[in-house]
Write a structure and sequence with these properties.
three-stranded antiparallel β-sheet, iron, transmembrane, heme binding, four-stranded mixed β-sheet, binds protoporphyrin IX containing FE, Cyt_P450_E_grp-I, Cytochrome p450, 2 domains, monooxygenase
Length: 559
């Protein structure tokens, strides 16, 4: 092709692309404008050029710079108490979404209609997970994989993991003990290392000793999540991001696939390899793959080797578990410590429960738990503290795709068409909806122990940190066991006190000249959300700000 023709072809292609973009943008905004005129609830400040993107900016500016975007959504929700849902036109950066905090509508979305997940729920975590996984699958593909992976996460299988989790938490305790009286630590970092160790064992049966040292897999994983954001364009548009994430993704894939081949070999030749009983997620999924001719094997024959598409998808699933099992649980552990540090009466009652269930000898609890994991079920107040922490600091949102012919009933009776929109359930707002929750912003574990009829009794369907329905979080039993074990083995030994004031002073001293000038001209920024310095910040999921700097002290005999 002559150079002139080539340039002309490029110009035509570019002009067609621009025309298509302008036309679809016009069509999109025209539809929103029409809905706006019809009274579809949405922020009043909307424009043909920017949709509602400037509104988000206005709200995020009222929060600390690293506050999670869900906190801005929660603030916005206060303007929509009549409908308990509203539309945000975020095109072209993100599909326009109906933000929902009405518990009754949530039951329709996840339970009654079980709406599909939108493509964005997979795309948003693709750099972390690598490709198709449970989170992005829908229909029969999701069903097949979910039933293959369910056994590994069943409540009964989780009991098999209790002794190992206890061992990991004991290392966590040793580290806290070494830190006591020794300066500020990042509790989020300690908890992240613990939960990574646990999830590696639960999914791959691998001992990585990450709390004490380095390991190639969590290091690669940590690099990927540090280069990840669900919304921050400073990270998302960094040209180096895909290179760093692909390189580290390949490191993880190679590791997971080696483990997969090893388990497959052990399973095919149990006598030769002296294989132990299978408890890990990967072993149980392989067992179903080898044994279950109906779904994964060919013609009912036991497969002799793993096929490529199975290997690739199972690798993505494992990467998903490593991410979800680590990020959400570690932040919840840090927030649970935070809540107990602020509510001494709850901490006292928690300790009392542990005295009753495990006896006065604090050092004996680990052994008792390993011998009899069902003791966990007797710790009802401990569970109540975990539930209340998850109510106030839920780490995950729920996203679904609207469908033709499906309309959401708003609180005021309006019917809102969902076709073409994503639906985002912001758990923070559902969990603190003052219409249905009594004293919504207070940490009150006792609400989980009172009976129906009591004013604190939790309203139906308004508590959904793991969401409800067939797509409920697969990791719920693991999470609850793990955090309960952490509290049982730490609460009577350590006092954890937030050290934000000291931390902020240290950061102030480290400021360079330009930073000081900038602060002198525009003033100190906001660093709390509703008075909470440990607000949910942006680090892949919703972690406590600045990694929860704190000091650890040993509990004295008088306490
Ligand atoms: C505090 C801890 C956790 C919270 C609050 C949480 C929350 C959630 C939520 C809200 C969903 C969406 C459900 C829906 O769309 O209906 C979900 C799904 C999921 N979670 Fe979790 N999660 C946690 C821990 C874990 C752990 C430990 C794992 C795995 C090791 C895990 C794996 C998953 C998976 C695979 C899904 C997708 C399930 C499906 O679509 O079938 N999560 N989680």
């Amino acid at each position: 092709m002559a150079p002139n023709n080539f340039l002309a072809a490029i110009a035509i292609l570019a002009a067609t692309g621009v025309a298509y973009f302008v036309l679809s943008g016009y069509r999109h905004r025209a539809r929103i404008n029409e809905l706006r005129k019809q009274g579809f609830p949405m922020p009043a400040e909307w424009s043909w050029w920017f949709g509602h993107n400037l509104v988000i900016f206005r709200y995020t500016k009222r929060l600390p710079p690293l506050a999670n975007v869900v906190l801005a959504m929660q603030e916005m929700s206060q303007e929509f108490t009549e409908t308990e849902m509203f539309l945000m036109d975020m095109w072209p950066g993100y599909p326009s979404s109906i933000i929902v905090f009405n518990p009754e509508a949530c039951t329709l979305i996840s339970q009654k209609w079980n709406l599909p997940r939108p493509p964005q729920s997979g795309e948003a975590i693709k750099p972390i997970v690598g490709g198709q996984s449970l989170v992005s699958m829908n229909g029969s593909q999701w069903k097949t994989w979910r039933s293959l992976l369910n056994p590994g996460f069943s409540a009964s299988n989780m009991m098999n993991h209790v002794p190992f989790i206890v061992d990991c938490v004991q290392v966590f305790c040793d580290k806290l003990r070494e830190s006591s009286g020794n300066g500020i630590i990042s509790l989020d970092d300690f908890a992240t290392r613990l939960t990574f160790e646990v999830i590696m064992k639960v999914t791959l049966d691998a001992d990585v000793n990450y709390q004490r040292g380095k390991h190639i897999l969590p290091t690669a994983f940590d690099t990927i999540t540090k280069w990840h954001s669900f919304w921050d364009v400073r990270i998302l548009w960094n040209p180096l991001r895909p290179i760093v994430q692909t390189y580290n993704g390949n490191v993880i894939n190679r590791y997971v696939q080696r483990e997969l081949e090893k388990s497959f070999l052990e399973m095919k030749n149990p006598k030769q390899t002296n294989a132990k009983p299978a408890h890990s997620v990967i072993s149980l999924a392989l067992e179903a793959y080898i044994g279950g001719g109906q779904e994964m094997g060919k013609d009912g024959q036991k497969p002799q080797k793993l096929d490529k598409s199975f290997i690739d998808t199972v690798t993505n699933q494992i990467r998903l578990f490593l991410f979800a099992g680590n990020d959400t649980t570690s932040s919840t552990i840090a927030f649970a410590f935070h809540m107990l540090s602020q509510h001494v009466e709850a901490l006292a009652r928690l300790r009392q429960e542990h005295d009753i269930v495990f006896g006065d000898d604090v050092s004996g609890a680990a052994h008792l738990l390993k011998e009899n994991p069902t003791l966990l079920n007797q710790c009802t107040y401990t569970l109540a503290c975990v539930k209340e922490t998850l109510r106030l600091y839920p780490p995950a949102a729920n996203m679904r795709r609207g469908q033709p012919g499906i309309s959401l009933p708003a609180l005021n009776g309006q019917l809102l068409p969902t076709e073409g929109f994503n639906i985002v359930v912001v758990q923070q707002t559902v969990h603190q909806n003052p219409r249905v929750w009594v004293r919504p912003r207070e940490f009150l574990p006792e609400r989980w122990l009172v009976g129906p009829g009591h004013e604190l009794y939790p309203p139906q369907n308004a508590y959904r940190p793991f969401d409800i329905g067939s797509r409920t979080c697969i990791g719920q039993p693991l999470t609850l066991n793990e955090i309960k074990i952490v509290l049982i083995l730490t609460a009577r030994t350590f006092n954890v006190k937030p050290a934000y004031e000291e931390w902020d002073r240290l950061q102030e001293q480290k400021r360079g000249i330009w930073e000081r000038v900038a602060i002198w001209t525009r003033g100190e920024g906001i660093n709390t959300v509703h008075g909470d310095r440990a607000y949910q910040s942006e680090k892949a999921g919703t972690h406590p700000s600045d990694g929860y700097p704190c000091r650890v002290e040993l509990v004295t005999q008088e306490e």
